[in-house]
């Protein structure tokens, strides 16, 4: 026993004090500090280090051990070698024969010559870590017994504050090589490629309603998804200008007809008037054509349904009062029993798709439902989506009953079989190739 312990009674009191500090520790950090610092007066060690599951958690005189310091690296390496040699579960002085040459050299340079290993165990007496005590003098039998008694107290207190698993040695190189080989072989397991893309249920063979003339939509007489009958009035254009043009054309036709009648009467007596009959007749025909054209445009101001179905468009308020050009899409008439799936596959997710590839739709409104479909067409050229991204359009038809038209969701498109490694690292490899320019 060191010279600071005056009597056996004082030693016993000091041991009881240390046990009390361990039991009253509020957290594992406080307990670790007690282990490596408070017993220094009793045992006179130069330094101590606490290892838990292979990592140094505390050291004498250090608030937070630096994991990159040479001393910490030496202690962790020595602990692993003690565990590998089967010496980590018993208390005793450390023999240099248990350590390799590099660890011995570090021991001479970084620690004291006499080291004592005090294991910490769980309730099944399996090692979870240990304490490395080092000093210049040797360890007496009474000190070894006191340390063993303290080790049991420290183990119990640590398990109460921070339960830990069993401290195990690292995998042997042979076993590690086997695991790596199995992982590499697993990368060649064929798996089915699949990608996710936004999708929408669209009408199949729908009739698109376009603007028949340049003008302003005055009124929309149907609602979105409303059932429509054939020849039902859908929308009406503003006809003010067209009515005025028709009236002007009608009056111009009347003037031309009056001039023709007057010229015909004069032609019996006037040779010059007879020569103008052809011109007056042509002018009348021109005015008649202008009137017919004006009436034709006026008749187009009312758009009617060419077939039965439902009206598919976003909002009637967005159409009402909107200026449109001839041929501009207004709405679509569709059969609610006939629907297809439109998928917008991002160019970055494009994979090789087989003929009649399987497609599964998961609606946003009901993500647990699944609708099966079969791919029918895949566009060769990418187009710009309303979101500003380039994507390929895929069209698929549903195998069973189709969901409601206009439903949006996520489509999972299944491709061909490919090795697992390509499936997992396809995107990273593509990004690396772009970065390196190869």
From TrEMBL:
Superkingdom of origin organism: Bacteria
InterPro entries, sorted: UPF0194_transport
UniProt entry keywords in alphabetical sequence: Coiled coil
Q: Does the keyword Coiled coil apply?
A: yes
- Transmembrane portions of the chain: none
The keyword Coiled coil is assigned to this record: yes
- One GO cellular component from the entry? cell envelope
Q: Where in the cell is it found?
A: Cell envelope
Major localization listed first in the record, in broad terms: other
Recorded hits in PANTHER family, A to Z, give: BLL5650 PROTEIN, EFFLUX SYSTEM COMPONENT YKNX-RELATED
Output this protein's name: HlyD family secretion protein
Q: Which organism is it from?
A: Izhakiella australiensis
Taxonomic lineage of the native organism: Bacteria, Pseudomonadati, Pseudomonadota, Gammaproteobacteria, Enterobacterales
